[in-house]
Amino acid sequence: MCSERLTEFDQPRPCLPQLAPKPVVIRGADWFRQMAFLDGTPMQGVFRLSPQIRPERASGKVLIGVVEDSTGAIDVQVREDLIENVLAGSFPVVSVAGLVAEVKGRIGLVLTSVTLNPVTIDPVRLIPRSICPVPELLDRLEKAVRQFQTEPLCRFMQRVLSDDRLMFPFVSLPASRVHHHSEPGGLLMHSLECLECVAQMTMFERAELELGMAAALLHDISKVMTMKKDGTKTRLGAVMEHDELTLRVLAAHLDYLDHLWLNGSIALQHLLKWKSGKGRPLPLMTIAEAVNSADRISAGQDLSRRAFHLVPNSHFITKVQPGRIAYRPVFRGQ
Ligand SMILES: [Fe+2]
């Protein structure tokens, strides 16, 4: 008979209940598509539910569609009853949970839960990539927004970027009909160029610099009310200049900033409204000159780029618009 005593490792262990595996949090649509998850892996994340969702042929109760963010889309399959309270509105932000599975022949998700998610902590990532004619600009916007460090301004920007009524047209409209950045997505491209230009002027104190960056990004935001997708003017745009509407378009968000940082809100409103050559001859803050200059530099560069695009490399002068020419210093070396 064995007289050895059992050690603590040999003692029979009590049976533990089997815990369900914790869902993997999806960091983004593009990230999900690049990873190799096993079928059946539980996942969860926050996305936009695309309106392009339709019944699967085999069964009217099962829908096929996509959830989206700024990085891409994930094919999903979902029971109709799970989203009947969610479909209202365009591209609602939803928290989803589901299992990895093949959907439409590609890796996707079979959703087991879809709930509206009104709290948006990651607003740029949640701009649907499909509505932005130049999707790469969303990556630039995300990078640009990450530069903000001043707490009240970060919260203000978060609110503005979460406002679909502003952001959806902001990322898709042209900046003008025929002047500069006149292609779809041109408004975002021009606004980003302005922000990136101001952000380089690090001689300014940080909070002032960031106010300038915010003003540069939003200086043309009122075009969302005055311009249509084809660059023509809306009814409101036909009777009012977009500059006159900037503070109105941002009113609710500026009210919010008033409560967080009144001095900053006043400064931002001055930066959004001050225009060289109009009204007050000199700005109250020097960085307003930077915002104005960035606007002219971005527009002028785009005009020159277009004007020189079709002329031979050896040409150093060309017509930009009626009454305006552009010059480039061609260097042929020694
Ligand atoms: Fe502009």
Can you walk me through this structure?
With 334 residues, the chain is of the alpha+beta class. The protein has a 5-stranded mixed β-barrel with strand order 2-4-5-7-6. It has helices spanning 29-34, 136-145, 151-161, 164-170, 186-199, 206-218, 223-226, 235-239, 246-249, 251-260, 262-273, 287-309; strands at 24-25, 42-49, 54-56, 59-69, 72-79, 93-103, 106-116, 317-321, 324-327. The longest helix is centred in the C-terminal third of the chain and has 23 residues, at 287-309. The protein folds into 2 domains: 24-116, OB fold (Dihydrolipoamide Acetyltransferase, E2P) (Beta Barrel); 132-324, Hypothetical protein af1432 (Orthogonal Bundle), CATH 1.10.3210. The model has no long low-confidence stretch (mean pLDDT 88). Helix 6 (206-218) packs across helix 11. The chain is built from 12 helices and 9 strands. The protein binds fe (ii) ion. Fe (ii) ion (FE2) binds at residues 190, 219-220, 295.
CATH architecture of the largest domain: Orthogonal Bundle
Each distinct ligand: fe (ii) ion
Beta-strand percentage?
15-25%
Q: What's the order of the H and E elements?
A: EHEEEEEEHHHHHHHHHHHEE
Question: Which properties best describe this structure?
Answer:
globular; 36% helix; five-stranded mixed beta barrel; two-stranded antiparallel sheet; 2 domains; 334 residues; binds fe (ii) ion; OB fold (Dihydrolipoamide Acetyltransferase, E2P); alpha+beta; Hypothetical protein af1432
